[in-house]
Amino acid sequence: MCKLRWYFEEEILDLYDDKRFTQALEYGENKLLKDMIAVAAINDDHIVGMAGASSDSDTIWQIGIDVIPEFRQQNIAATLVSTITDKIIEMGKVPFYGTWWGNIASRKVAFNSGYQPVWVELGAYPSKKDE
């Protein structure tokens, strides 16, 4: 069973040495999107999963999630996303979870955390024969 640990603004800087959580954290003080809060799943004193929220604006915070491979498929991701979602709402902000439409595992985490699709963005690239 994992324990949860919260990190807020300046405390998050201590997490930047651990590069396993590239979806959960922005990894920089001077980035356009600032990491505001994070919650980690701790197993035997080791972080095995992390959900983070970055400020896309003053009122809207985007959620990212990472779980190390050995701990996937144990509902850790959905638990962390649900937990951080509740905290963001409690803080008076609007949470959102964005993912690439083809990332089925991430879409499943979003759905299991209570999120519903509200928009889809598609892009197109010229085919090689058009070049």
Structure characterization notes:
By secondary structure, the protein is α+β, with helices and mostly antiparallel strands. It has one domain: Gcn5-related N-acetyltransferase (GNAT) (Aminopeptidase). It has helices spanning 76-90, 104-112, and strands at 3-8, 34-43, 46-55, 60-67, 94-97. It has a five-stranded mixed β-sheet with strand order 1-2-3-4-5, with helices on one face. The radius of gyration is 16 Å and the shape is globular. The mean pLDDT is 90.
What is the structure about, briefly put?
The chain has 131 residues and is of the alpha+beta class. It has 2 helices and 5 strands. It has one domain (3-130): Gcn5-related N-acetyltransferase (GNAT) (Aminopeptidase, 3-Layer(aba) Sandwich).
Q: Which topology does CATH recognise?
A: Aminopeptidase
Low-confidence stretches: none
**Architecture, CATH level 2?**
3-Layer(aba) Sandwich
Mean pLDDT: 90
Number of helices: 2
Structural class: alpha+beta
Strand residue percentage: 25-35%
Number of strands: 5
Estimated radius of gyration: 16 Å
Specify the CATH homologous superfamily: Gcn5-related N-acetyltransferase (GNAT)
N- to C-terminal distance: 54 Å
The quaternary organization reads as single chain
Top CATH class: Alpha Beta
In N-to-C order, the SSE pattern is EEEEHEH
Task: Describe the secondary structure blueprint for this structure.
Blueprint: E1 3-8, E2 34-43, E3 46-55, E4 60-67, H1 76-90, E5 94-97, H2 104-112
Parallel strand pairs: 4-5
Antiparallel strand pairs: 1-2, 2-3, 3-4
Helix pairs in contact: 1-2
